[in-house]
Amino acid sequence: MKSLSKCIIFTGVAALLTFGIISFSCSKTQVTGTADTVYAESKSQIVPADALKIVEALQKSFRAISDGVLPSVVEVDVTETKTVQTIDPFEDFRKFFFGMPDFEEDDDKNKDGNDKKKRERKFEQKGLGSGVIVKRTGKTLYVLTNNHVAGEATKISIKLNDNRKFEGKLVGADARMDIALVSFESDDKSIPVASLGDSDAVKTGDICLAMGAPLGYSQSVTQGIVSAKGRSGSGIGNINDFIQTDAAINQGNSGGPLVNIYGEVIGINTWIASQSGGSQGLGFSIPINNIKGAIDSFINNGKIVYGWLGVSLMPATKEYCDALGVGETGGALASQVFIDSPAQKGGMKPGDYIVEIDGSVVKDVEHVQREVGRIPAGKVVQFTVIRNEKKVNISVKIEERSDKISSDNGKLWPGFIAAPITDEIRQELELEKKVNGVAVTNVLPKSPAASLRLQTGDIITAVNGKPVKDLKSFYAEIALVEKSVNFDIYSNGGTITTGTYKF
Fold it and tell me: In the chain, which segments carry CATH 2.30.42.10?
């Protein structure tokens, strides 16, 4: 990644040559010497003294921040072992000339069923990132960095600001949040630990400094401001609400700290948005408040323990909001609910529109994901939802998230996304005006909907024999389902009844 630089040239000296006299003029400073050598007898005062004091004070602040924080910023050198499959081009040649002319087809396979021509080859890939020391326990120091820096490393080396190197050990890593914790051992009690700030208190426009080893240049500091908060994107760290900064961030900065004017870590630098591959003033950091709890979780459990609600969320478009009667408000639609999940046990239903968590207003889907992820297992949390245009309070006992359970489509009810029938859908499916209900979209494999052979484009007109005319009445009917369910489906000009799904 190449960094962009701009060069500004100031030209401030002019000489006037004449045949008779060379003259110099200065309003306050007497100049002596020859035409070729000029000496100023006093300092130039380009900047007024009172203004200069302010700038100097700011400069001293930046120096103090750098001096105070950089000793806790480290370079993280990693080695990853990669495995690739290669094909032996001479395998058939050997078989032909050295016997086995009557080999069976199975002879081309290993016992595990893999092609014998394919060979696995391992190679080492080196990488470099940054990190910051965030905790000490006895002789053990803990370095916070990104998962994409150290999460798959087989060898880790920690390099301090004084060039001392230590062997690092991966304590834990989490791809969902894109953070990792690395430890190393040292008897040196003078190695500093960085102070963690309050990222919730950060405001747009705040001065900040990004530290790390961009492009391999260790102990580098860039300065900028907080450009925005609550950003999402990149495809990594999907439960993060990133801090955006214009402080220059490049390759190698990943895992380094974003620091406020008090010398406190407010974020971990993670990714950039760039068309050139270099810094364009669009850097993104994980807010430190999102990470604080993960540090001890890594140390105690080797992983981050996430809270689990057990719903599939989606942002509600204007069409959905109008169909549900929730108005244009922030929130998140629980379009589907996992069977036997904390949400279902607490009484949450598909079609519930989540607007508050423990009295805190919900902004969007990502907000719900972040807040629920932070809730410890066993805690009872109150959710406020809009159901049938009325607010309903639901108490849910949060459980620990299991990737195996949360990815089981067979437990996700109803297993598809119900869409309101808009004019566009009517036109696309060529539906008569008399046909009402909800449109079936995004049928998940192995889900209850899939077992009933529902397909995208089907129109559900009844649930357990009770007609549904719109999205609101559809969710009202499936909320009453307990032991079994079937649907009336309008498709290709006719109506059929599905089989019965039993819970």
Answer: 307-407, 414-502
Region(s) of the chain under CATH 2.40.10.10: 195-301
Lowest mean pLDDT among 20-24, 279-283, 344-348, 435-439: 20-24
pLDDT digits (tens, 9 = 90+) for 187-238: 999 999 999 999 999 999 999 999 999 998 999 999 999 999 988 776 655 5
| CATH number for region 195-301 | 2.40.10.10
Distance CA 193, CA 131 (A): 12
Contacts of 432 (CB under 8 A, 6+ apart): none
CA 143 to CA 205: how far, in whole Å?
28
- In CATH terms, is domain 414-502 a member of 3.20.20.140? no
Closest C-alpha to 245, from 277, 276, 269: 269
Question: pLDDT exceeding 70 applies to what percent of the chain?
Answer: 81
Exactly one of 66, 130, 148, 488 is catalytic; name it: 148
Is 367 marked active-site? Answer: no
- Strand-pair category, 360-361 with 73-87: unpaired
Which CATH class for the 307-407 domain? mainly beta
pLDDT value at 266 more than 90: yes
Closest by CA to 347, choosing from 258, 479, 242, 184, is: 479
- For the stretch 364-380, pLDDT in tens is 898 899 899 989 999 99
178 is a catalytic site residue: yes
Q: What is the DSSP letter of 203?
A: -
> What pTM was computed for the model?
0.75
Active site residue 246: no
One of 254, 279, 335, 341 is an active-site residue; which one?
254
Give the helix/strand (H/E) hosting 180: strand 179-185
CA distance 167 to 202: 35
42 or 5: which leads in pLDDT: 42
* CA dist., res. 409 & res. 479, Å (int): 19
Residue 44 half-sphere exposure, CB side, CA atoms within 13 Å? 7
Q: Which of 174, 178, 241, 352 is catalytic?
A: 178
Indicate if the pLDDT at residue 313 is higher than 70: yes
Average pLDDT over residues 462-476: 96
Place of tokens 């439960």: 239
